[in-house]
Amino acid sequence: MSVLLAQKHAAPKRLVPHWLIHLGLLGVFAVAILDASPIPLPLPGSTDLLILVLAAHRGNPWLLAIAGIAGSLIGAYTTWEAAKKGGMAMVQRYVPERFLKRIEPWVKRNGMLSVMVACVLPPPIPLLPFLLCAGALGVERRPFLTAVAIARTARYGLVAWLGAVYGRRVIRLWSGYAAGWSDVILWSFIGLVIAAILFGLWKYKHDKRRLGSAEPVGAAG
């Protein structure tokens, strides 16, 4: 009987391994940077999920939100700066034409507001096209960072609060259905993240070289 009780109480913990919990603020900070950078993550909303899980495991929800906001600001600024230097040529390499036709006019008209909406809304609203267009179309740095900060504060603050209040119930429910597959899911996700980072770095360097080599040709014409 005591063995069964011990297994029952241990089941929710198997959903998230201890090493992931120990990453804490550093893990949220790093994932938030990638989430707002040109390096793609395999799961949209990864920062929200990590904040939710860690807040549910008694992490300080407000420090977790701050880590997510700070990381998102760094990642978004990196994306904005790259697009500012690369121009629309860089945007076209990362954003499919069917999305760009809709997003570009809206960013031109609304600027800071378009960035704020994209940063506050969860998936499937794509973030990267808005950040890139903001840089390429001349949205100034201060309004851009202000929009990101306001939107991410609202979004990650809400996620952290939900994790602290309701997160343990969600994890308990999930563990009853998928705890046996949790390690497989997590390690698969980690493998996808590593592959996405390597691919993103390669693509970024490749595109940077192509843009650099194209500049003298344009100047000569």
From TrEMBL:
Keywords: Membrane, Transmembrane, Transmembrane helix
Domain VTT per the UniProt entry, residue ranges: 50-164
InterPro entries xref list: DedA_domain, VTT_dom
Stored Pfam families: VTT_dom
Protein name, as recorded: Membrane protein YqaA with SNARE-associated domain
TM annotation in the entry: 20-41, 61-80, 111-137, 184-202
Domain of life the protein comes from: Bacteria
Organism for this UniProt entry: Silvibacterium bohemicum
